[in-house]
Amino acid sequence: MSDEKKMFKVTIDNITIEVEPGTSILNAARMIGGEVAPPAMCYYTKLKGSGGKCRTCLVEVAQGSTADPRPMPKLVASCRTNIMDGMVVKNITSEKVIDARKGVVEFLLINHPLDCPICDQAGECHLQDLSYEHGASGTRYQFPRRTFEKHDLGPYIQLHMTRCIMCFRCVYTADQVTNRRVHGILDRGEHAEIATYIKTALDNDFIGNVIDVCPVGALTDKTFRFKNRVWFLKPVDAHRDCPKCSGKVQLWYRGDEVFRVTARKDEFGEVEDWICNDCRFEKKKTADWVIEGPSKIDRHSVISANHYVGAHKPTEIEPEVMGRPPRLLMDIHSVSQVNQPSVDLSLLPGPAHSDDFNGKEK
Ligand code: SF4
Ligand code: FES
């Protein structure tokens, strides 16, 4: 008998690939990549048992398998449904899926406070991306949103329960990555909340990873809170010889100051290597790290905004359009005294600040 493993054929959005038996639809779609990969708010490759909570990854199975070609009667969660040989799946090519996803986003936003302007997760929030890409422009919800009693989770982690979407990722992380879980989901349904049962700080060695897995701004880094916007920072890959973890991180710089340290993430926003609390919270000096170079950032990410390397400045076209030089050309720089032409904005490390124009040292 041949040792060769039988592979399963699957067609997703008209693209056919072969995958190993036991592969989920979501992971098969991720192999194709791009828009074919459904969004996932609760599934996390590294966390056993994750998925099946948020329903953002719903897809249509137009043909169950070659052996039984009947379609599946309802949309299925792609993170929890495995490929069968000859399966045909529709993601962005299915109107039903697009419509259902819009409905899921509406549900996820029912209790979400939409406080993006003051939320530290803004710019890297999966719910923000999901609602831009799949949501409706308005809400039909007219009732008060849920509120919770505040829980203090200690010096490192800030909990904003109103932003939580109950994805369970932080609970699985504490269970599987740290040596002691002291938080979980208390109560059920509308009253369910992330909390520690008796007032306890989350401070065991690897607990900072809950910040990276949280898809929204419910768990954020207290040491970075309100200090900067992510799109003003420059992420740089760095490592150190850490006795506890891989020591492979991203440092987030503005100028020469490290504002925060996070784990590195892959193209689906999932952590590549868990990092310990020491690396994340205690090592915020460049001297602590060996710098590898600028991190690769998806060009669609807001984090890649504001960097104008290689930009071509437009040429003045007024004389050409008017057929003569303009008689009066107001120089906005000399009038406003704000933007001085001598200051090259593209060379500033971050957004311009008034100190950049008045010659003051920052
Ligand atoms: S706090 Fe964040 S990671 Fe935890 S369940 Fe809520 S949304 Fe998910
Ligand atoms: S990612 Fe599949 S249900 Fe949440």
TrEMBL record:
InterPro entries: 2Fe-2S_ferredoxin-like_sf, 2Fe-2S_ferredoxin-type, NADH_UbQ_OxRdtase_ferredoxin, NADH_UbQ_OxRdtase_Gsu_4Fe4S-bd, Prok_molybdopt-oxidoreductase. Belongs to the complex I 75 kDa subunit family. Pfam families: Fer2_4, Fer4_Nqo3, NADH-G_4Fe-4S_3. Its cofactor is [4Fe-4S] cluster; [2Fe-2S] cluster. It is found in: Membrane. SUPFAM superfamilies: 2Fe-2S ferredoxin-like, 4Fe-4S ferredoxins. Its main location: membrane. Keywords: 2Fe-2S, 4Fe-4S, Iron, Iron-sulfur, Membrane, Metal-binding, NAD, Translocase. One of its GO terms (molecular function) is 2 iron, 2 sulfur cluster binding. GO terms for cellular component: membrane. The keyword Iron applies. This is NADH dehydrogenase subunit G. The keyword 4Fe-4S applies. Transmembrane segments: none annotated. Residues 8-95 form the 2Fe-2S ferredoxin-type domain. Residues 96-135 form the 4Fe-4S His(Cys)3-ligated-type domain.
